[in-house]
Structure of (R)-benzylsuccinyl-CoA dehydrogenase:
Amino acid sequence: MTMDFEYSPKAKDLQNRLLAFMDEAVYPAEEVYEEQMRSSGDPHFYPPIIEDLKSQARSRGLWNLFLPHKTEWTEGLSNLDYAPLAEISGRSHLAPEAINCAAPDTGNMEILTMFGTEEQKEEWLRPLLHGEIRSCFSMTEPAVASSDASNIECSITRDGDEYVINGRKWWSSGASSSRCKVAIVMGKTDPKASPYQQQSMILVPLDTPGVKLIRDLTVFGYTDREGHGEIHYDNVRVPISNLLGEEGSGFAIAQARLGPGRIHHTMRSIGAAERALALMCKRARSRVAFGKTLAEQGTIQTWIADSRIEIDQARLLTLYAAWLMDTVGNKGARTEVSEIKVVAPNVALRVIDRAIQVYGGAGVSEDTPLARMYAGQRTLRLADGPDEVHRMTIARRELRKHE
Amino acid sequence: MTMDFEYSPKAKDLQNRLLAFMDEAVYPAEEVYEEQMRSSGDPHFYPPIIEDLKSQARSRGLWNLFLPHKTEWTEGLSNLDYAPLAEISGRSHLAPEAINCAAPDTGNMEILTMFGTEEQKEEWLRPLLHGEIRSCFSMTEPAVASSDASNIECSITRDGDEYVINGRKWWSSGASSSRCKVAIVMGKTDPKASPYQQQSMILVPLDTPGVKLIRDLTVFGYTDREGHGEIHYDNVRVPISNLLGEEGSGFAIAQARLGPGRIHHTMRSIGAAERALALMCKRARSRVAFGKTLAEQGTIQTWIADSRIEIDQARLLTLYAAWLMDTVGNKGARTEVSEIKVVAPNVALRVIDRAIQVYGGAGVSEDTPLARMYAGQRTLRLADGPDEVHRMTIARRELRKHE
Amino acid sequence: MTMDFEYSPKAKDLQNRLLAFMDEAVYPAEEVYEEQMRSSGDPHFYPPIIEDLKSQARSRGLWNLFLPHKTEWTEGLSNLDYAPLAEISGRSHLAPEAINCAAPDTGNMEILTMFGTEEQKEEWLRPLLHGEIRSCFSMTEPAVASSDASNIECSITRDGDEYVINGRKWWSSGASSSRCKVAIVMGKTDPKASPYQQQSMILVPLDTPGVKLIRDLTVFGYTDREGHGEIHYDNVRVPISNLLGEEGSGFAIAQARLGPGRIHHTMRSIGAAERALALMCKRARSRVAFGKTLAEQGTIQTWIADSRIEIDQARLLTLYAAWLMDTVGNKGARTEVSEIKVVAPNVALRVIDRAIQVYGGAGVSEDTPLARMYAGQRTLRLADGPDEVHRMTIARRELRKHE
Amino acid sequence: MTMDFEYSPKAKDLQNRLLAFMDEAVYPAEEVYEEQMRSSGDPHFYPPIIEDLKSQARSRGLWNLFLPHKTEWTEGLSNLDYAPLAEISGRSHLAPEAINCAAPDTGNMEILTMFGTEEQKEEWLRPLLHGEIRSCFSMTEPAVASSDASNIECSITRDGDEYVINGRKWWSSGASSSRCKVAIVMGKTDPKASPYQQQSMILVPLDTPGVKLIRDLTVFGYTDREGHGEIHYDNVRVPISNLLGEEGSGFAIAQARLGPGRIHHTMRSIGAAERALALMCKRARSRVAFGKTLAEQGTIQTWIADSRIEIDQARLLTLYAAWLMDTVGNKGARTEVSEIKVVAPNVALRVIDRAIQVYGGAGVSEDTPLARMYAGQRTLRLADGPDEVHRMTIARRELRKHE
């Protein structure tokens, strides 16, 4: 083993195939998608073009690439090999679902692979891996700061052969789609246990009585197709066999879920940043003010240079974190995962914001994808732990070296 | 005369009356407004509550406060006395229209007052001052960097007793409302004149044949009630009496229009920032994470302190610019007006962004006004000249001192 | 009273006289000063040119301008009238001492005026006001975070008719000069009292046995002429009549001392920033790279514009704080004083750093005053309370509004 | 070849040996060094401890590690293997010279290796490689912006068998040492050639008549031991055999020189940043204010986390640039080299500045190495091309992708 920054032959092959898929299928589909959505009149419509893309991706061998470990269900691809694919998929909002690598399904599939019973896998993992259904993840609660897991108020109470779930969750992303069939819900089975053993996760089919989708949250004015649901779990009863793992393992499962998921998000953020930088350059070359193209003006050049520097650094740090996860495990990579979780959305936001400024009015409107990308990246400074919690984690580990 | 930071008795009286109006009428109206808009199903609906607020404002003597000079039409209020009122009105999106001090009508009314013929004033200024109609301002063009006025492509060509207007404009804010009756259009009457004498402004009733509202632009994902119109002026013919001022005076009128308008925008930005800071503090006091309220955590305290510092500085600089306009005129205040034009939206964006972070998911959604405020403020780094053009202006003036 | 940004006639007259003094005497003296210092070979030499400047300043009526209140000892000048004079004096390191308005004497003279006995005033205030001696202020201790006054370890113990002082102090600025005759020392007379009543201040002539000047601290490689002393007070005995105010009043006196002192520092920081901006502009106009002067390059223009914006804001905020001190008292201005304490050195550092970058190698060397100015301003983010403590103060006050 | 972030076995072995050398020899030598310098009374003294360290380093096989290519003179070590050694050596100002890897000798030795004649190598490269003499590099000129090579004014004129050199250079680092025996001087042999073929480099023994060391520049207030010389080359005559490479190749040689040199500087900057972060953590753990250690306070934790994130990113980007240089050559790595040239000193400055703030007064004084490190890093934003020139380079390459 020796330091090398060249992607593996396998990774390069997949990248080439994914890039071809993007050029030949995904980008051309974007306009079709817009048209199908518009004509449906339903912001939560499932447009046929997605199904087309999915079938193409499957036939190109670009399917379920996100699962790191070889199982009976999937071939497995290392985090390091998957990361650049996630980046490429981040350039178009259609790509992640097209290759069945979209959040929150990826994380849900991963924990089902790792912690699910055979029965649970047959019922939920199989159709998710086949892209037949979608799923959501109900952890965050409106009433409390959910980045501190000890704050969770949702209760999961044993009652005979059933668990009874009561709680209010929001940002259950994906829940507004009619194709979303199951939620993984985090709640407390034992509020008196030690802080990180109070929580459990449980599988809740969305058609269970008592599951009430209250509303769909907007993000900076945008209604996302899959939606961000607020769900009231009101005396919801499921069989005890729906528990994921053991009672009290919820926090540990959440941690296991988050490592690779953060790599995915981060690399997609970098893909988004690259797209914004490319748009910025194109605009800067064509737009003229005060007798020069914007590309010839020092201020714009500074923005382009800083964007390139920030993106390159964020990518390398993410690849390093992915490599650590592959070599020393998710736990050994925790500091670096927190680092990229802070870095990548902030880089993407800065780059997108500069691109908006270069586009002027077009930048904030629907004439470019920039404002929508901005809105999406902005949520990532909050989702899966706000920046501040990750910084606290990083600082504590750094300080520990000097004990 | 001697330095004094106390508002004048007149300003304080108006502030108190406006604050009472906000508390007693405007804030309570916000919910009514949401309900009336929702039930109308039309994003460009004109809800009755606005008319109620307008009539209340009139009876409280809070009407048309923005006009700096005493004329036969208005009493006149100095920029310095009006500025804090603009700040207060910036705290609610309902307030500016309620007191008939909303952009772009204010700027349009001001230039009609200054440059309009008696006939033009009777036809357009009177109903605008009475709040009976609204207006829009068509300067920015999609095809060119419009911050450089020499780029303007819209043509205004004399043909007998008429001018013929051809051009495509966008960000004609207000144009989507059925109450918008007239546009002030900037175009070139003489493309061969010296760069700043090529342009003229002309009054175009929106029902003139050839005026085509192409579409309404969104800002981030928001559709504004008054809308941001893209308008195609396609062989539009108006009588020569519709010209505002003289041929070739368009650039000069634009400059005259912008001074006070920037004070208004800036002070409303500061009002928005104050509201975001207040929301941030309230949230920080009530939200608990890791055993402490957010208000007790150093990082949040830093955000609050920096917000207070930035807001206080931006307000003082704006008041100073207003005072300069009152004492040495718009031209003498140009550097300072450029300074506040850069400062205020950037301060507001930073404060709002911090508030979003403190609110978590609620911050980006419709549960707080923050994301919408962010979108609005973000456009102000582009409207009326992007930050970069103002910085260039400031730098040139500074460098001139060392010639 | 009504808002007005014009300096008072008295302030303008003093400014004009001080500006004339700068042009006619201070700036020309800078070279003489360098030569006298160099030829002395002693970094703590008192060069005759200072005494010349002092006598000129006195004859021009530019002497002891800093004292805000009229007493039998001084005429008094409001903080608001003095502030712009402090700014002007900040442009040259010779000016503050030349007009007898140099720290730490100013603060020491002020508390002697307010809290000193007649005897103390005769002995120390009189020669300080006459510029015959200098003084230092011993509060900060090397061993503890002294921004938290409860950490102070220096003891002041009553023993019969004497107090015995034991402690180690540093950053006792001015102590390295042979002209420094007295220290005001902060220590604890009663460590068991409530946190803010444990401390007292006491006058210690520097020739008292047990006063040991351990060393003189450098600042970024620079040895300041008056020096920054580390002093060991080792069983130092002074008569009880040397106590300033009452036992337990040390913290309160420190607070009283800091308000105006912070205005002075802040305005001098702004003066330094203005000088750096002027130097940057001059260099940018004359230096050519890649076919254009630096002044024509967008990046440099951005720096100039941002510097102008930041300076103008910082000045206005400081003037506002000064006005508050004059009108509602030091206590009522505490938030604003903390705000300017944070803002001004940070603005000055940013402006100076940009100027250094424009000067290239000359910027970090002795060929410009920039590096030395940087070092001086950098200490002001620590002296009289670090930025972080002031931010905490501001945040707490802001949060209190929402209780 | 496949992506791997593990250092090579060779690199790890060298790192371990260098770390041992640091612990066993370098750090303990720092105090001895200070004492030898102090007692010499000469800021340019060559203290015996350096010679001790050099002999130890040689016997440990830690000598001349910087040369990337295997030649008859050196074994060669890849940039990627050397980079982490440069980082380690950056932690102590004694280490680079101790292992004969100090600037500007490294760059000079490299171009002598690549472009020197056998005679030049015997005369200058041999004693440099043996650590017997030192050298300086005379490129920058006080009168012009030297980052634009076409500005160079120094002339190198052929006169029979000699070249005559006339020009004024500064920041000829190392020239103040009596051990510095030769300068490599950049000047114009043909001012009429195309812009990048006007320059040549020539070897000038410092004892040649006409070489006048005018003065030694300070950096902030520091006098560096090797000094930063301003040299007047006044009708200096050297034989034509002293030309390095061919006439007109000066710009190309400068480019060849800069690639690896920038890696070295960057990695040493990162070493400095790591040291500052470690110091910050130690201080934060031990210092108490307002009832908590600084390490427990959110603001300080944010600084520590951001420092860790910034350092990790800068290191990975530098390693990537080093790998590119090794695999595709210096030219193929130019964008990335410009990126790290901007990133590393800025990261180091931010981290050091935070550490200073945590140390309070000790941070700006001689009680910590921080202020001196700050001064050193600050010059690196100017040396070898200011940030702005590198940003311009990066932007142009990025824009070229969209032609």
Notes: Chain B touches chain C through 55 residues (CB under 8 Å). The longest strand of chain B covers residues 162-173. Chain B has twelve helices and ten strands. Chain B has three domains: 9-116, 134-244, 251-400.
